[in-house]
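hiii, so i know i said id send this last week but things got crazy w the move. better late than never?? heres the sequnce for the chain we talked about at the cafe, plus the structure i predicted for it. fair warning i was half asleep when i ran it
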Amino acid sequence: MPLVEKLILVEIFDETLEHYEEFRQIINRKYLPCLTQFHFLLRFPEHLHEEFQQSIANRFDITWPFNNLDYHTEEQDLPCYGIYKKKTRVILLYTLPLDILLQYTCIIYNHSFAQHSMQINRDRIGWKCNEIHSVTQFTDTFNKLTTGYVDTLVLQFCEMKKFLQNNQSFSTWSSLRFPWLRSVVFDFQPKVIKRSERAYIIDKILQMSPCLLQLTVEWEDLSLYSHSNTNVKHLRLELNKSSKDPNTYIHIDFLVQLLPGICCFETSGRYLYFNENLVRFVIKIIETMDRLVQLIINKYSLLRRDPKVEASIEEAIFNAANEQLPNSMICQIRFSSCTERRIWLS
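okay and structure toks below
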């Protein structure tokens, strides 16, 4: 069995400091004689800060064989019983440089990573934020995200007490670029940021992402987008309300003006009901989006399936297509899970 030469540990949470000494003693030449690279990121509850200072922080040079430790505090979501998580401040104890550890983490929180790292290189990274105090802080954070390689960026602003002041300006964003970004997910739940501010953030990020292909965004936010973007090919439209008539809810003509290059179109979040209005909606999409090859309605739906309704909807779509689109592009309709419907076009 080969001996370990490189070891990286992240996302480790310890509710006490009891295991730290064991952890420290294991990582040494006796147990890992060939270890030359070692990096870790530990999390402790902030209420242990005084004990942490006494037993760990003030004794780095004595207790640890690697002379590259640092720590800071920040607010994070921590695992809790059931499916929910609790938000609290934590102590992050890690080895330097932090950039190496950020290559292996899934989520970064608020702004501390921007203060303690140079850049981020990840295929997919989520930025979860609930406190923004200044445009400078906001810009510095995005500077860290744009200087490295990020393929997919998930932006989640949640439980934010306040956003930026109205008299603050985003003009410094003009110099930012996401040269590698191919996919972005906007999640502004709950709605604590003004729609105009959400639209501005979306607008700027799309403008500074020349290679962007995939976009996930709520319709209410996208409808305020002010520029046409021909790069986006895959759109997942998140709905914040269920609709019995999507034709009056989602304006397809305007959507095509904003994103004329869509090849794959999905709806998710809330549900579009199966009725004659949905049939007209589907036909309108097929008629208007001339580059579309796949349409997915109610992605990840959990609604109970009704085979009779499914059959009638499928028949109605084919009949409407044959009447309104002489060269019908519909080649297959499939109900994948619950009421999720996938339509492939030729």
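btw Confidence is low (pLDDT under 50) at residues 80-84. thought thatd interest u
miss u guys!!
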